[in-house]
Hints:
The complex is a heterodimer. Chain A has one domain: Cytochrome-c3 Hydrogenase, chain B (Orthogonal Bundle), CATH 1.10.645. Chain A is built from 15 helices and eight strands. Chain A is globular, with a radius of gyration of 21 Å. Chain A starts with a strand and ends with a helix. By secondary structure, chain B is α/β, with parallel strands linked by helices. Chain B has two domains: 145 residues, Beta Polymerase, domain 2; 33 residues, no CATH class. In chain B, helix 1 runs antiparallel to helix 2.
Amino acid sequence: MAETYTLPVGPLHVALEEPMYFDIKVEGETVRGLDLTAGHVHRGMEALAMHRNYFQNVTLTERVCSLCSNSHPATYCMAVETLAGIQVPERGLYLRVIADEIKRIASHLFNVGIMAHLVGFDSLFMHAMEVRELMQDAKEGVYGNRMNLGQCTIGGTRTDIDKDAARFLRGQLEALKPQLFELYGVFEKDPLIRTRTQGIGLLSEEEARRHAVVGPVARASGVVYDVRRKAPYATYADLKFEVQSDTAGDVHSRAMLRLRETVESISIIEQCLDQMPEGPVKIEGMVAIPAGESVARNEAPRGELIYFLRADGSDTPQRVKWRVPTYMNWEALQVMMAGCQVADIPLIVNSIDPCISCTER
Amino acid sequence: MNEIAKQALENAVGKILGPGSVYWSTDAHNNSYGWVKLCDPESLTRVALPLAQAGARLMTITAYRNDKFSRIEGREIAYHFDLDGVVITVTACVDSDPPKVPSITPWFKNADWNEREFTELYGIEVVGHPNPRRLFLDKELDGDILDRLVPLSTMMNGASTTTLWEKVFAGRQMPDWAKGVKN
Lengths: 361, 183
C-alpha cells in the first residue's frame, strides 16, 4: 500500500478567508482522510448575549458575521417577538425581507467570485466582484452602510425606504440583471470553470440527509428544503419565488444554484417594493419580555439559521443560542473531499460557503 | 402549516411518553412549535429512535443552567428537531452529579459537534460519544465556562486597554482601578 502523509492546511491559508485548521491525510495527490480543528475565532458571543439586554443584543448579533449580518438580528428579533407576542407592522416585515434578500445577493456573488479566483480565472473573479459592487452601493445608498445594515430592531425595522431610496434600489437591480445573466452564462459554459468544478466535491442526497446539511449545499444535492417555503416567516408566504434545487451535488451545481437564487432574490425585492403597504415600520414603545422560551428560523444566504431564546423575565436573556448553517455543513466535507485531488481542496471548502466567525461565535 | 408533519412528530413522541405529551405553540405566521419535557435524561435515547424513524432532523442542541448565574443547581438540555418545517424541542433535565446525558449520535450523526460543544461549555459528560474531545476551546483553556458565574467585567478584562480611561481622566489623577490594576 502506498504511503500516506499529513498535509496541514491552515489555520491561516491563502485559500481561506478565515482561520480553520485541516489535517489532511494524503496519498500522493489524493486525499484519504480529513480532520478539522476549529476554535480560532471563538469569541464567546453567547456568553456576552446573556449579559446584555434585549436591545443591546440586536447590535451584538448583527456582528456575529459580516456576510449574513442581517439574518442574525432578524432571527433574534423574531425569537423575541414570538416570545413577547409582538405583532410587527406589515411594512416592517417587507423591509426585513428586502434587507435579507439584498444581503443574499451580495453574499452569493461573493462566493461565486471567490470560486472563480480559486479556479485561477482571476478576471472573472474581478468581474463578479464588480457586479457585486452594485449591491454594495445599493446597501450604502439605502442603509448608509456597506456591510452591517442596522436595519432590524425588536418590533420592526429601524429605517424606512422612501420613494427616492426605492427608485435608487430599483435602478441598481435593473443594472444588475443583464450583468447577472452574462455572469451566469460564463459560469455555466466556460470550459475552464466546468473542468475544475464539475464532478468535484460530490455529495449524494443520501449523504446530505445523513449529515443534515442545509442551504445551497443541501439543495444542490436534491434536499429541497428552504425555510422561506417550509416555515414561511415575515412576508414570504405572500411572495412568489421558486426554491432552486439540483441533483448533481458537485461544486459547480452549488455555484450555479447560488446564481439562480440571486435572480430569485431580485424578483423578491421587486415584489416587496411593489406590494409594500404604507404605514408604520415598527411598534411604538417596548413590550416587556416575559419568562418563557421560543425558537425562530430564517433562511440565511448559507441556509437555515436557528435562534433559541430562553427568558427569565428580567431585561437580559437567560440563554440565547444560535446555530448557523455552516455549523451543519463542515462534517460533510469528509464525504466531499474523499478521494479528491489536493488542488481541489480549496474549491470544495469554498463550495460550502464556509463562515467560520458564524460557526464558532 | 404542515399538519402531517405535526401529527408524525406527535405520534413519534407519543409512542414513548403517551398521548398528549407534546405542548404546541405557534408564531405570528402560524408555524407550529412543539415542546416536550423529559425529567429523566435516560428517556432521551428512547425518544430519539422514533424521532429518527419519523425522519426528523436534529437542528441544534442548547444546554443551559436553570439559573444563568448558577445560584441554584440544575441544568437542562434542549434538543431542537425539525420535520418538514415543524419544529419540536425536547428538553431533558440534567440533575445528576456529575452531570451526565446519553449521546444521541447513533441516531443523529450531526449531534457530534453539538454534544462536544455543550460538554466544553457546561461540563456535562456525554456517555457514548464517538469522539469526546474539545470542539472550539483549546485544551489549555478553562472548561465549563458557562457553568459558573463570570461577571461581565471579568470577562472583558483581557480585552480592554487603558486608552479609554486615559482619555477620560486626561489631565487628572487616574484612579487605580482605571489603570488596569487587578483588585
